[in-house]
Each structure stands twice: as C-alpha cells, then as structure tokens.
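Now for a typical sample entry:
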Amino acid sequence: MRVVLDTNVSVAALLTQGVAAQVVDLWLAGRYTLLTAEVQLREPRRVLRDKFPELPRAKVGRLVNLLRRQAEVVARPRPPGLSPDPDDDLLLGIALVGRADCK
C-alpha cells in the first residue's frame, strides 16, 4: 500500500506514543510505503523549531533523515489545485505523482 501522511503525523510520532507513533511504526515495519517529497521534508524542522524550540535539533534531524532514507521521495509533485489549503494540495500532488492507493 502506498500512503501519504500529513507532516503533523510524523511530528506527533516524534513527540508522543499515541496513534501517530503507531502509524509510523507500521511504516517502519514495512506494512506500507510512505510517499513524500523534498518540499515536505523541510516541514518537520520548521514546525518543530517554531512550536518546540527546546527539542534537541539532533532528534529532529534524525526524524528528517529517517524519512529521507526510508520513504519514497517523489520528484516534482504538482499540486492539482483541488484544495483551498496549499499544504493539503501539496499532499494531493504527492499522492498523484507517487500513485498512492486510495480506497
């Protein structure tokens, strides 16, 4: 299964042991292929730096490096202009270019 996750899921997985962490654990266990793009990989650093400045930069860097190494990074996602939220439209673009599974 090919899946796109909102950046908030990976951020929440880093900070808590809740449902978001379980979703990421399933990805790490090989239960699905995570799709992302370089532009999305910049978001965790920005979000965590702004909202949690006390969080060690090394921990944030490990998350981004893990995503870059283990996820499938799609080239040039083209937001389709379907969502009024540009961030959500980017996710739709990643899903389209990466051929995410939709059920």
Notes: The mean pLDDT is 92. Helices lie at 7-15, 19-28, 38-41, 43-51, 57-70, 86-97.
